[in-house]
Amino acid sequence: MAPGVVVANGDVPEFAGKTTMYVYVCVVIAAFGGLMFGYDIGISGGVTAMDDFLKKFFPAVYEKKQHVHENNYCKYDNQYLQLFTSSLYIAALVSTFAASKVCSKYGRKPTMQIASFFFLIGVVLTAAGVNIEMVIIGRIFLGLPLFLSEIAPTKLRGALNISFQLFITAGILVANIVNFFTDKVHPYGWRISLGLAAVPALMLGIGSLIICETPTSLIERNQVEKGRQTLKKIRGVDNVDDEFDSIVNACEMAKLVKHPFRKLMKPASRPPLVLAIVMQIFQQFTGINAVMFYAPVLFQTVGFGSDVALLSAVITGIINVVSTFVSIYLVDKAGRKILLLEACVQMLIAQLVTGGLLMKELKATESDLSHGEAVFVVIMVCLFVSGFAWSWGPLGWLIPSETFPLETRTAGFAFAVSSNMLFTFLIAQAFLSMLCHMQAGIFFFFAAWIVVMGLFTWFLLPETKGVPVDCMVEKVWKQHWFWKRFMNDEDEDKGV
Questions:
Q1: What's domain 20-493's architecture?
Q2: What residue ranges do the domains of the chain occupy?
Q3: Which of 3, 189, 253, 424 could form a disulfide with 182 if both were Cys (CB 3.0 to 4.6 A apart)?
């Protein structure tokens, strides 16, 4: 056996090397993209619940909110109000494929710098908005998700990738805390909330100047020797020949594929593509972003005042962050499937109990929900959020990032991210209207989807724990009882 290779999980190679401090620094800096993304998710729900924001841009919603007995479930049912939250995902849906091209041609650093630049433009437009059109245009400039698999050692790839999700949850928590305090700043507290989004954007932009490109990105762009030196720096050892040769070989195979998007349509590419898209759909149809976008609105619906609703959103944000650490600890020990399956049971219970309680106690035109019952709803939401945070949240990004072969990885992940953005937009745009028309039944709607997710995970999701990215085809797809039938044509598809 070559001196630079050790064996993990039986016959799966694990390349020698240390997890250096530089790896952690690179991951933290790149994950500030997650902080931007999370802050934007968390800030919108709190801002849309602020009276000053509603008075300026949505006076009709503000008037409706003052007459809560008209319909408890329909106080915030307004398409433009929902568009304020959902609009940035329209741009993200389109820009994902442009980012894919930029990543492939120029590398990850320029992509991060461009993302932070456009985010800053969006911050200025939203915080200084004088009409709703200006605010929505600003929202369209916000956010580009990034991924980190290429610099992570296989044995820690899950934990390091989940750091991106951890920063998303941290961004949501920070946004909820900011909203709690700026709600008391009249009449421009909402401007402060939106303007502070510039902080993580600046940190990402500055950080991108000091980190290096990934070895894979450098080798893909024919900077081979620089890629070798970068790999030595990242791994903290000089003997990187085996891993370097593996990356070079994978890049050479990738270059044979002239049209990666066309190759994605071939049968051999179908398993990771289907899995990536389905994971994104399922992630959104848990109902998590409906909860995180509109947590203050939801808690006001069940009877809390503005301050208590924002405080409850802070509590769920804390649960979100803490639970993500559970995933970081367990994902490379217990594996992916067990976390997903356990969370399906936990989230299903929370959705059914919440829906049942609201259906029984919270009527459309009158509220019999006691303070204790309202607190119980918050507890059920926390139970739901914790289950999501150690499973479908981080793993919805991790699994697609590690299952595509190199030749289709960027294109495939672009499909995954765009699918996520599409269904995030649909949920964000529709949730308040769904809450108005379905009332408590909306929780049963999401519960039904969770059942489907659990069945898919049990029967069709392969375990990828500890498998190097370049070994996925041989060790995962060709061994799976269902997906192996698509692998027969893999060799003849390589020149596509």
A1: Up-down Bundle (1.20)
A2: 20-493
A3: 189
